[in-house]
Design goal:
This protein has a single domain, classed as Rossmann fold (3-Layer(aba) Sandwich). The protein is about 25% helix and about 25% strand. Strand 2 (about 25-30) and strand 3 (about 40) form a beta hairpin. The radius of gyration is 17 Å and the shape is globular. The longest helix is centred in the N-terminal third of the chain and has 15 residues, at about 65-80. The chain is built from 5 helices and 10 strands; from the N terminus they run βββααβαββαββαββ. The protein has a 6-stranded mixed β-sheet, sandwiched between helices. It has a 4-stranded antiparallel β-sheet with strand order 1-2-3-8, with no helix packed on it. The protein has helices at about 50-55, 65-80, 100-105, 145-155, 190-200; strands at about 15-20, 25-30, 40, 85-90, 110-115, 130-135, 155-165, 185, 200-205, 210-215. The protein is an alpha/beta fold.
Length: about 220
C-alpha cells in the first residue's frame, strides 16, 4: 500500500496534509477527501520489531487500576447493547490482555487476538456477539481489510465497539497529541466513522470523542 490511494475507502482523492518528525522518525500524513481518513504511507512505518518494542513500553498491566479505569469507558456503552453472557472477541489485546479479563469478570465469554502477542488466527474463524477494538484501529495499516474482517465474524445484531481518539478537523491535526506516537498510522474523524457505518450498513452510536459503537443490522435476505 502506498500513498497513491486511501487504505480505507480506496479513493484516489487524497492530498498531502503535513510532514512531521515523530520521535526522530520523519513522517508524511495524507488526507482522504472522500472518507476523511488521515494515514501515514507505509514507507514511513516502523519495522515490526520497532513496533513491538514500542508496545512493550506501554503500561498494559491487568493489575493496573488506572489502566482498568481507562478501559472501563468502553464497558458501560457495550453492556448497554449486548445480552448477558454474550460471546466476544477482544481484537488487539496487546501484551497484557486486560479488557477481556474485565469482561469475563462481568460474565461474558471473551477470546483475544493480537497480531504480535496473541496471533492465533483460529479465533478469527468463529463468529461473535461483540467485538472490542480498543486503542488498536489507529495502528491499522490496511483499515479496510480489518473492518471487512470484523463484518465477516460479527453476528447479525452484534456490536463492534471501537475506542480510538477522533480528530475534529484536519486544520487541528498537526499539533494533535495522538499523531505523536510513531506506531499510529490511521486517524479517523466522526465522518470517517459514518462512512464506515454506511459501507457496512451498520447502525452507529457515538458515545464520546473516542468511543463509537457499530451495530450490525440483521440480514433479512
Amino acid at each position: 500500500m502506498n500513498q497513491g490511494f486511501c487504505p480505507l475507502c480506496y479513493s484516489f482523492r487524497i492530498e498531502f496534509l503535513v510532514s512531521k518528525n515523530v520521535y526522530k522518525h520523519k513522517r508524511d500524513f495524507i488526507f482522504c477527501l472522500n472518507c476523511e481518513l488521515i494515514f501515514v504511507p507505509t514507507r514511513f512505518h516502523l519495522s515490526e520489531q520497532q513496533q513491538i518494542d514500542r508496545y512493550m513500553q506501554h503500561n498494559n498491566n491487568p493489575d493496573d487500576k488506572k489502566y482498568r479505569k481507562f478501559l472501563s469507558k468502553i464497558i458501560e456503552p457495550l453492556m448497554d447493547n449486548i445480552a448477558p453472557g454474550s460471546k466476544g472477541l477482544d481484537y488487539g489485546s496487546g501484551p497484557g490482555p486486560t479488557l477481556s479479563l474485565m469482561l469475563e469478570e462481568l460474565g461474558y465469554s471473551v477470546k483475544i487476538f493480537d497480531k504480535y502477542f496473541s496471533p492465533d488466527k483460529l479465533v478469527l474463524l468463529s463468529d461473535y456477539d461483540f467485538i472490542t477494538c480498543t486503542e488498536t484501529a489507529e495502528h491499522f495499516v490496511n483499515p479496510r481489510n480489518e473492518f471487512d474482517k470484523f463484518y465477516k465474524i460479527l453476528k447479525d445484531d452484534g456490536i463492534l465497539a471501537i475506542m480510538t481518539s477522533m480528530f475534529d478537523s484536519k486544520n487541528n491535526f498537526e499539533n494533535w497529541y495522538y499523531n505523536r506516537d510513531p506506531t499510529h498510522v490511521s486517524f479517523y474523524t466522526r465522518n470517517t466513522m459514518i462512512w464506515i457505518a454506511n459501507i457496512y450498513y451498520y447502525e452507529i452510536i457515538f458515545y464520546s470523542s473516542s468511543i463509537v459503537l457499530f451495530k450490525k443490522k440483521i440480514n433479512i435476505n
